[in-house]
Amino acid sequence: MGWEQAWLTYRKQNNRNWEPYFGSIYADGEGKVIKTASKELKRAAREILGREMKDSGQEEHAGIILKLVPDLGTGTEGFHIKERNGQIYVMSEGEPGLLYGSFSCIRRLQMEEEFQGFDKKEIPSNPLRMLNHWDNMDGSIERGYSGNSFFFKDQRILVNERTVEYARLAASVGINGVVINNVNVKGNATRLLDETYGKELKELADLLEAYGIRLFLSLNFAAPMELSGLSGADPLQEDVREWWKMTMARLYQRIPGLGGFLVKADSEGRPGPFTYGRTHADGANMLAEAVQPYGGVIIWRCFVYNCMQDWRDKKTDRARSGYDHFKPLDGAFRDNVVLQIKNGPMDFQVREPVSPLFGAMEHTNEMLEVQLAQEYTGQQRHVCYLIPMIKEVLEFRCGGLGRKRVRDVISGGGKGQRCCGMAAVANTGNDENWTGHDLAAANWYGFGRLSFQMDLSPEEIAKEWIVGTFGTDRKVMDTIKKILFMSWPAYEKYTSPLGIGWMVNPGHHYGPNVDGYEYDRWGTYHRADHLGIGIDRSEKGTGYALQYGEPYASIYGDMKACPDELLLFFHHVPYVHRLKSGKTVIQHIYDSHFEGAQEAKEMAACWESLKGKIPDFIFERVKKRFDHQKEHAEEWRDQINSYFFRKSMIEDEKHRIIY
Ligand code: GCV
Questions:
Q1: Does domain 493-535+572-648 have CATH number 3.90.1330.10?
Q2: For this structure, is 347 an active site residue?
Q3: 270 lines ligand 1 (CB under 6 A)
Q4: The CATH homologous superfamily of the domain defined by 128-470
Q5: Between residues 497 and 310, which one has the greater pLDDT?
Q6: Where are the domains of the chain?
Q7: Which pick of 183, 192, 203, 277 has the fewest CB atoms within 10 Å?
Q8: 348-399 pLDDT, tens per residue?
């Protein structure tokens, strides 16, 4: 076929108890999504049970009934599955709910679970559950580590069988929105707004819609200048505002189901309202007004910072910028604007504190952005299961101890908001296995499942993903689970000590380079000298810690209270400073790098123990990545340890060889 089915790899099973249900299906309705649900159930029955499900004309004779029920209390995307007298009812107020319910039944087949007496109601935790693709129209992917784009090639939009398989996978985990193009909108991508790509976009939107997924686009704030030669893009200027209204009216006429737009403005060279002395609320609201008549949403990114800042000024701090720019604008955004906030204040490092913007804007819609593309976490050559990290972010009590969590804010916080949720920078591409590293698919799967159901634990998610992908063999399940749960902590240990981050090569951001941070022309990001290391973000330093509410401002701002794993993010300390663990900072650096590299070897050995238990081609493909990871982890260990040994001139207490 040329590609694989990831977690929808169906294996034959022989459970006689399931047979009565999977003989026939009754679908109550003619809509596109209900048809998809029925098609998916039939495919699963065929491939798992070897049965051709018949369409039943009558509800009472069908094994599975897909039924739209008004006022069920599920909303249009939630579902209620109920087994009754040998029939399975999948019910919802809307067609997408029936599709999610159907995939839930299929998961049950894959997990080899019984249906008798099954009764489950599920309502999605988040209104928006989105993937952001950073795909360019030439087919390349910014920070893509799994081949080229399957949305674009040679400046054209692709709509083919691969797109269908993508939509199946995305819908099966509950994704309901997809931004297909890079937030850095350049060249022809600006033309996605005009009629140039109208036909293909409509085709793609229709295809996705059949899977309950809405199409979104990234847009270029300077489009009025680039497409129509306007002299500027000032959001308060009448001709600019009119241009957007007219452009959106035409676009929505071509593609009525378009979800809306994602915008990166005034960041890393992208145009934005600052050029005209306007605020980000001015910029976002202008677009929001233009899409409002069509139910469109503007997703405005808070990743706004000046990469050319002069860091010699003690108060200048990139970590501060999101909050500094956006907090004063609380309440100024229209209802159909949502601010998309990266999980941490910097940029997807292996360890960052949670962004202080969460919960800080009571009167503004907020949405979480995480990065599955492993830009700073091993670029899908290293295994790094990110779901435990995302879960930690969701559970963070941004409102203060015992008070609201990030998950409460982004899910609408009980205020009935529809314009909020979770987005992930996708880790997919045209590689046969979708994600380059086979184990990286666990992040795609996990993100979708978690965004749909934030109560799920990373363990439950891992189990489902392993079974869907590799089957139910006990040893395979236990071993892969062990690898997944070792992976994030191990990566943190052999790369970035105590929350400092950024020790990667400039540009491509792969591999160790202690001084590699590209935006610090006046010194090193980590501020290490012969006495100590770390960035003072306390009140005496950049003051970033004060952006948090209590108790975090006090905890993070105080060297003694600050958790070890974030110490160097918040404080500059001597190498001999004692951590809560009792170790000195320098000894921690040595120990964790030795440990992490050792753990990379252990994970590789775990994988090798699976030889013969999973298909050879997958085994070999993953083994190659582990071979690289083992070596690369040693390179990280040696570079970091020797750098800090030479800087500090402090011996390793354990007298290991430091190169
Ligand atoms: C799409 C980081 C990445 C960029 C990315 C940017 C963003 O800086 O290195 O490639 O640009 O984040 O999130 O906009």
A1: yes
A2: yes
A3: no
A4: Glycosidases (3.20.20.80)
A5: 497
A6: 9-122, 128-470, 493-535+572-648
A7: 277
A8: 999 999 999 998 999 999 999 999 999 999 999 999 999 999 999 999 999 8
